[in-house]
Amino acid sequence: MENIMTTLKELKKLFFSLKIRRKKSERNNNTTTIHLHGSNGFYIGLKLILWRKRRRVFSFISAISSCLLLLLFSSVYFPPPTANNLFLSRHSSVRHVTLSLSFFFLIHVVFVILLAELRQVVKGREALEYNFEAMFQVPASGGNLGRDLWSWSQSTFYYGCSNASKKFQTADIKTLPDRYLLIATSGGLNQQRTGIIDAVVAAYMLNATLVIPRLDQQSYWKDTSCFAEIFDVNWFISYLSRDVEIIKELPPKGGKAWIPRTIRVPRKCDPTCYETRVLPVLNRTQAVELTKFDYRLSNRLDTELQKLRCRVNYHALRFTDPILKMGKLLVERMKMKAKHFIALHLRFEPDMLAFSGCYYGGGDKERAELGAIRKRWKTLHASNPEKVRRNGKCPLTPEEVGLMLRALGFGSDVHVYVASGDVYGGEESLAPLKGLFPNFHSKQTIATKEELAQFSSFSGRMAALDYIVCDETDVFVANNNGNMARMLAGRRRYFGHKPAIRPNAKKLYKLFLDRNNMTWEEFSSRVRTYQIGFMGEPNEMKPGKGEFHENPDSCLCQAKGIETFEEKNRKDAVKMSDEYQSIEDPDWIDVDYLYKIEEFMSD
After folding, report:
1. List of E strands, 495-543
2. For a designed S-S bond to 590, which of 122, 191, 321, 376 qualifies (C-beta 3.0 to 4.6 A apart)?
3. Membrane-spanning regions, if any (predicted)?
4. What is the domain count for the chain?
């Protein structure tokens, strides 16, 4: 009996599952998830589920049949005990047997019909069963979406505009003598880039001369590169000469080396904060060094200071000639392979997964490996992987990135350049992505070891090469919202709104979980809907929304008299974009994780 009750519960679950799936299909204006339309859809769907669970159903039927046979034989050989005389006993027994046989016959007919239906499913529905198993079949083609995948039709109506206005005071008027600001940056290349940009603005606010920032050589990758080995220092000084006075070294004081006073300002420190915390010290000592300088300046500043940020980021910070030459060579080789290509910042390295507290189904081995890495950050609390992923704070797996791109219209013939460190899981993790996009490239596959030799020992210089390719690509795809992703998204907006895709991970998470219960057409349609506001289109983000480096709205101008967006589409894009929650990302080339987290906690 216990087995029968268990089987009955299983059948109840099956019917409930079918009911839920039917409601979901109706809600999404679809019929069943197997492309069956009309009044018989429910009936055929039921038969398919019964076929999928046929072993349990057969067990159930066998159990019920056995019970009925047992009941029949008990009725025949053990007559009712209440019969007191022979006539009544015989009469009652005959009637009891007749009723039992009738009941058994009816039940047997029902089960025979059900068995016949199941056999029909076995014999006549193999093709339908195959469709059920294979309904989520990823096509090789991206399909015809009726739009250009590689550019936005409205992008030509926007342009970057960061020139200073007439009211902006120039360096020769504003800079005071014997007042020097030094900066010690923190993290990897793109995190340090934010520090360099904000250092120029801080020097301008403090009326000080800026000494070329000192790059972080103590972070996780121990890159010993100095500013002049990554950026063109002479160009940097020359381009900003009208904005801020910049020198390469702090001059000696009284013929002796000058040791500046070190200060660490809070994160997101606004101009008033600098006036109260830094300026008094600078006035007394004449030289101040701001340490671990990343995101130490407010995201919101007045327009003139924001435009200065843009001049530094998009014009003054130029890579050295060897880096530019190699980066352009990589771009040329990609363009020789295909007219258009995607650059993907995959961001699926072990440190990122460990930092985020995500789990990807690797069992105890994965938990042990990522848990050991996570111990680097003593201030991190125990994570809830399910909650983290549900909130959209986990990178997509390589396979999920590939499925998203295919759903967005990119076919298997598209060439993909991957900017990434060592992917967790190695080739096993990459195999599904490579299966979807076999034209798979990286620095190491399109350049020789000899060509990369002068860069390969320096994470910052290798990151600079990826930065150039991701900037020059037709479509940039980021798998998180870390420093590199934000920097490139803002740059691509500034230089013509080139497509920059970032996953709406919060919505896609649920979709990926349920993908085997829907057709590819339904899946791809939902992906395209969820990605509205996450594609790098014009007017996608509200002014002032997000990090300024990602959305440099003060530096974006629109051609006059051009209606660039239908109001409804703009509102939809902004609404979807507002749902996006960025990850505080220890980017593989961007962040000294321990500094970033522990300093954040201490501030």
Report:
1. 500-501
2. 191
3. 57-77, 97-116
4. 2
Task: Evaluate whether residue 42 is within a structural domain.
Answer: no
Same domain, 209 and 326: no
**Per the domain annotation, does 368 fall within a domain?**
no
Q: CA-to-CA distance for 299 and 268, rounded, in angstroms? A: 6
Q: Where are the alpha helices (DSSP H) in 28-125?
A: 41-52, 54-77, 86-124
Is residue 130 packed enough to be buried (19+ CB in 10 Å), middle (13-18) or exposed (0-12)?
exposed
The three-state (H, E, C) secondary structure of 318-379, written as one string: CECHHHHHHHHHHHHHHHHHCCCEEEEECCCCHHHHHHHCCCCCCHHHHHHHHHHHHCCCCC
The reported pLDDT for the residue numbered 439 is: 97
Residues 507 and 444 in one domain: yes
Give the phi and the psi of residue 290 in degrees, each rounded to 5: -95, 120
Same domain membership, residue 277 and residue 305? yes
CA 36 to chain CA centroid, Å, is 34
pTM for the predicted model, two decimal places: 0.74
Name the average pLDDT for the chain. Answer: 79
CATH code, 538: 3.40.50
SS3 180: strand
473 within some domain: yes
Summarised one tens digit per residue, pLDDT across range 424-468 is 898 999 999 999 999 999 999 999 999 999 999 999 999 999 999
The per-residue pLDDT for 560 is 72
| H helix intervals, 397-448 | 398-407, 426-436, 443-446
For residue 551, is it within any domain? yes
**Which structural domain range is residue 483 located in?**
321-348+395-561
| Pairing, β 261-263 against β 158-160 | unpaired
Residues of the chain with pLDDT under 70: 1-135, 220-221, 561-603
CA distance 571 to 24: 26
User: What are the residues facing 343 on neighbouring strands?
Assistant: 417, 476
Residue 422: per-residue pLDDT: 83
CA distance 534 to 416: 19
Please tell me whether residues 334 and 481 are part of one structural domain: yes
| Tens digit of each residue's pLDDT (9 = 90 or more) over 200-254 | 999 999 999 999 999 998 876 679 999 999 999 999 999 999 999 999 999 998 8
Residue tagged 């002796």 (tokens): 256
Do residues 179 and 251 both lie within one domain? yes
End position of a domain, from candidates 295, 315, 335: 315
Domain-ending residue, one of 294, 315, 336: 315
∠ CA 582-394-299, rounded to 5°? 15
pLDDT tens, position by position, 182-203:
999 998 899 999 999 999 999 9
- For residues 213 and 339, membership in a common domain is answered with no
In a shared domain, residues 436 and 552: yes
Query: How far is the C-alpha of 103 from the C-alpha of 92, rounded, in Å?
Result: 16
